Amino acid sequence: MQLSRSRALFERAQRVIPGGVNSPVRAFGSVGGTPPFIAQAQGAYIEDVDGNRYIDYVGSWGPMLFGHADPDVVRAIQEAAARSPSFGAPTELEVRVAELICELVPSIEMVRLVNSGTEATMSAVRLARAYTGRPKIIKFEGHYHGHADFFLIAAGSGALTYGQPNSPGVTPGTAQDTLLARFNDLQHVEQLVEANAGEVAAIILEPVAGNMGCVPPEPGFLEGLRALCDRHGILLIFDEVMTGFRVARGGAQERYGVLPDLTTLGKVIGGGLPVGAYGGRREIMEYVAPKGPVYQAGTLSGNPLAMAAGYAVLRKIADTPDLYERLERFGAALEEGVRENLKGLGLDLYFTRVGAMATLFFTSERVVDYETARRCDTRRFARYFHAMLEEGIYLPPSQFEAFFFSTAHGERELEQTLSAQRRALARVFA
Ligand code: PLP
């Protein structure tokens, strides 16, 4: 595969940007090699500066539910840009986006728009602390909620990939207010709550974990957390930055029928532009400034370009009745094909999928938490990743990331992906 232009750009980038990238996982640290620098993308395909074309299963890490350069989204952005990219004043589009989010996500009655998933989770925790008057939060090992200090404790995604779960720069004082629990282990969470009685403001989690690979909740786990929170006056926060509008129209809370007190969103709701949101019960959200005392603000919050893209996406989500059935059909066919490939090659690897997110774990063991995820053969995954890239399939460059597909992925992409995978797996396990 020809990557000379990407290689040259990566060298230039490393001189002026730490590690050559603006977000760690993009640097291919855990799989090695040169990351392709991207020139353009359309539908299910992404193309690098050397002219290599790939079927894309990263989707900008989640936002591209309708594929790249969706004409409705592009048009909305162009029209908004012509009216000026930003005003720093209220707009009708913000109201429409907020109304649609409240309509589509079961537990959200009021919502505040911000610029990233990190801002959303950070603000939701501040709000939970203010509302309950308690200092501590419980998070789960291997879950990623962005890069606010108090989340960088046994975090997933890049932090897990790079094996530095406790980032330098996070003070012990901050770290002591973050309690760590094992995902899918209700008893462990109960013990933590009891040992910190009256001190826990919130339990925050990815209801389907995506940042240690795709790890679904065990039956009863989310319900158990809901009941525990109710018993102890703790707020339950679902971080649906990844799962929102991806595992179901109303996110994981709709899919599993468990309603959190607060929800954080990002990725899909920006259609590829920087947007995040946190929302929930009215009485809690009314604590947020200027209605209430909890400060949170943003020069570019509710930015008109981002709102135009977000509204275009949310409108399509609301107006496409069979959207999730279509994604489910593709997902089920892909899953069946992957299982056939594994069986045909006599391989016992663990595959998970929830809606339009999935992971092939390089282990035969059931992956249910951080410990079991970490036991994967990451070196063999790296070889598989490169074999797939050479076959023209662009996967997330880490075992600890879910891969995503969109409505632009169809029959042709399915067949190409599965035959590429058959050859790649055969090579890697030869
Ligand atoms: N929460 C989850 C579940 C995420 O997957 C991410 C990003 O991948 C974030 C929060 C942080 O979002 P952002 O990268 O937009 O700050």
From TrEMBL:
It is found in: Cytoplasm. Keywords: Cytoplasm, Isomerase, Porphyrin biosynthesis, Pyridoxal phosphate. GO terms for biological process: protoporphyrinogen IX biosynthetic process. CDD domains: OAT_like. Pathway: Porphyrin-containing compound metabolism; protoporphyrin-IX biosynthesis; 5-aminolevulinate from L-glutamyl-tRNA(Glu): step 2/2. It comes from the Bacteria. The modification N6-(pyridoxal phosphate)lysine is found at residue 267. It catalyses: (S)-4-amino-5-oxopentanoate = 5-aminolevulinate. Its EC number is 5.4.3.8. Pfam families: Aminotran_3 (PF00202). One of its GO terms (cellular component) is cytoplasm. GO terms for molecular function: glutamate-1-semialdehyde 2,1-aminomutase activity; pyridoxal phosphate binding; transaminase activity. The keyword Isomerase applies. It is an enzyme of class 5 (isomerase). Its cofactor is pyridoxal 5'-phosphate. Belongs to the class-III pyridoxal-phosphate-dependent aminotransferase family. HemL subfamily. Homodimer. NCBIfam families: hemL, PRK00062.1. This is Glutamate-1-semialdehyde 2,1-aminomutase. It comes from Rhodothermus marinus (strain ATCC 43812 / DSM 4252 / R-10) (Rhodothermus obamensis).
